[in-house]
## 1
Amino acid sequence: MAKETIAGLAKRLGISKASVSYALNGQPGVSELTRRRVLDLAEELEWYPSSSARALSRSRAGAVGMVLSADPLLIGTEPYYMGMLAGIEAALAEGDMALMLRMVGKDPAQERRTYERWAGEGKVDGVLLFDHLHDDPRPALLDRLGLPFVLHGAPEAEWGTPFSGTTTDHAADAATIVEHLHQRGHRRIAHISGPRAFLHEEERIRGVRTSADAHGMEVVPFEADYALDAGHDAVVALVQGPVHRAATAVVFGNDLMSMGGLLALRELGLRCPDDVAVVSWDDSLHCRLASPSVTALFRNPGMQGRVAAELLLALLDTGDIQTRSMPRSELVVRASTAPD
Amino acid sequence: MAKETIAGLAKRLGISKASVSYALNGQPGVSELTRRRVLDLAEELEWYPSSSARALSRSRAGAVGMVLSADPLLIGTEPYYMGMLAGIEAALAEGDMALMLRMVGKDPAQERRTYERWAGEGKVDGVLLFDHLHDDPRPALLDRLGLPFVLHGAPEAEWGTPFSGTTTDHAADAATIVEHLHQRGHRRIAHISGPRAFLHEEERIRGVRTSADAHGMEVVPFEADYALDAGHDAVVALVQGPVHRAATAVVFGNDLMSMGGLLALRELGLRCPDDVAVVSWDDSLHCRLASPSVTALFRNPGMQGRVAAELLLALLDTGDIQTRSMPRSELVVRASTAPD
DNA sequence: AGGGATCACTGAACCGGTTCAGGTCTCACA
DNA sequence: TGTGAGACCTGAACCGGTTCAGTGATCCCT
């Protein structure tokens, strides 16, 4: 069968292409009767308008892009991404937008080139940005390219030009964690964060310190890179360093590092939670399954992804620039911080 | 700045649109000099051809689709999917194809409607198909829709019409697992498979039985659904049932069920591997981190995804229908089957 | 009855590429 | 010198939608 087109439908119904188009898109300019006839015929023929023709004439791709620029190994094991992806996809599907996913290594140039190409080719109408960095070059780049974007996990502080994004109150999350540890009797804790290059890690570090100060607790900060081994090595370094004596709890920046830390504790003959308690800043199945199971902050990645996608849809649709703050995360208390 | 187009480039260079197009696409019909001038100008202007215009005139979307139709919860926790996705994406990017990802629930109608729409809209040039079912309606549907597809994990048996796909020798994998258990002294094993509706599960079940027969071992088959709880409940059912007495090892169809099984064993006061050994048919970080760590079959999801994507690219490019068999999986032996 | 507003509809231009059917020009060969 | 081949290039049609300006017809209001 030859592919149907709008011209074909028009001919069958004895009306013009324009009328068909108006009818299909719910626009005024056609009678209810005509509209029905068009819609019925389209349904009967199982016909859908060509997305590329539409994209061309509307100058709109009907897709949004997302670059995952983390270490591929990390992406594969981080359940956080997949959960977020599901939320994003669900929201986009409702808005009839496709998701263009690109995975590149840690190379920032690759990410930049991807945006340049997407913009040049008109392949996406906007992008979702993650993991905001210090002096992040991406917002300026995207502005220059004319690509609208939503910043997931935007800084609370004000920004040069207004932007759309989700914000998380990392200080509140930090307080939740620290207060829990305080209540469990810990007075000196270690905080193994992700790279400080990420703004949200800075905020977490600050939040932890502030909250600890408020409760008269001491914090040993330690920077790592989210990998399993990083968590492991950090714990080894902490324990073998001079500061160990008093740190009775460790807060890890994500679930993978928590798992690494747990392995290290076991190797070192330290018991969790008796000798050292553990908290993870991300919850996941890993935390649930570990032994001991790990107390973790549930940040609801699916919902976060959904909200970010909805913001982007709104931005593309109406140009509305807005920020939405995420609801406070919940701490899921498990065995790793059980009261001795 | 106004958006550049091919007409703009042509005017700047004083040549025709056609020549620019030929030059850009490496087609004959232009001199080397002209080609260079065009390419240089395009680079200088950071210009890329509009993907939608290209898609329209070539009648090719430049994208392939993939529907993940598993339980969203499962998708999020199954590292297998993410690994495969990374491989697929890498291969597609090399072939300058985009990936269109759609996540729908377990509802087959949703999946069908997605294909119908994609085909009607011309949104994708082909699709990747997973988890082949008994009497799978999808190949016929896609044929009817004129959408080329690659079947990942195709049946070894011959098929009505020829098709492109990857095949896995599940019997060999089964033999690897069973022989390992035999060598460890097990003579009666349980096999907790995924749903029999999946062809590959049938093949695995057959493979396990065949191999067990060959070694004079007994198999207790048990059908479950890949979820964590399913693994848990299956173990409970097995242990409380009349057959338990002699089953000294359990083979799980994926890593999640293995984890569930481990939890159940712990609850039941059974020790692993001393009382019951455990093997997982999928390897992942979960298997590595569990205690005891779980012996698992490493099936290299990244590579599998890459190969499937490459097959699809070849199919779209040259129409080549071919099947590629995956290299034999490797068993990663860990503590859950340690020699007592 | 006349004038303006509204409605239903249409022809044609347009989006930005690709591609086909020629048109020159040059060069080799008979 | 004529002819055929080949290289280089161009105008115009085409892909399949959207959208704008314009045309009749109908209706309402004074």
## 2
Amino acid sequence: MKRTLETIDYHEDTEEMAMFAKALGHPTRIAILRHLEKSCSCFTGEIVDIFPLAQSTISQHLKELKNAGLIKGELNPPKVKYCIDNDNWNKAKSLFCDFFDINERNTSCSV
Amino acid sequence: MKRTLETIDYHEDTEEMAMFAKALGHPTRIAILRHLEKSCSCFTGEIVDIFPLAQSTISQHLKELKNAGLIKGELNPPKVKYCIDNDNWNKAKSLFCDFFDINERNTSCSV
DNA sequence: AATATTTATCGTATATTTGCGATGAACAAA
DNA sequence: TTTGTTCATCGCAAATATACGATAAATATT
């Protein structure tokens, strides 16, 4: 990716939003998140069973969602229970709201 | 990217949202869009001048934003004037709102 | 201790993305 | 007609992403 010039410094919000968007930039990851939104939390195995993809592939997607901060995994050996990371989820929500000029109210479903 | 199984069919919303998110998944493209949100429309050259990137690189980013439908370019030879594509912008807005469970009201700034 | 279950990680192959310079196309100005 | 301006596209290189099977780690069960 050759960059002769120094790396660009964007505003923190810009960098952060791009990071979240990148994590959301794959249909499998959107689908995983939708599932976690509904079921609140579930084990890797349940997610694997939803998709016609290898277990290692799903694990990879979960890792990326975790790296972006959108989900977190709770150890429950030998299982791992995943759920939405609400703090970062709300952060992402705010960033997208600002970006799209949305009047953000009633941001949470019933809290 | 070896895929032995048939390609997965996701819900249309899921596919579409992933496509928009992917386009938003780079800080330069976020910054370009923020600029277009402010200035309403501008020529390629003006955008090129903002970033320490080659003209061809910016052109590439503009192409991706155009392919995703988020912007459109109006020929104004030899210049090209870019602006937000409001229809698709609103579509993207809705998808993200649904996804993040946002009560979408007052979606436009003053229309 | 041996086996089964669950999940992450490694190694690999291929595709896509990101960046650049060079070139070409389209038009305006001289 | 020649020259300059503006922008997209081509061709290339390097990095990253996506997918898979195989394997390892961690624990429960037998």
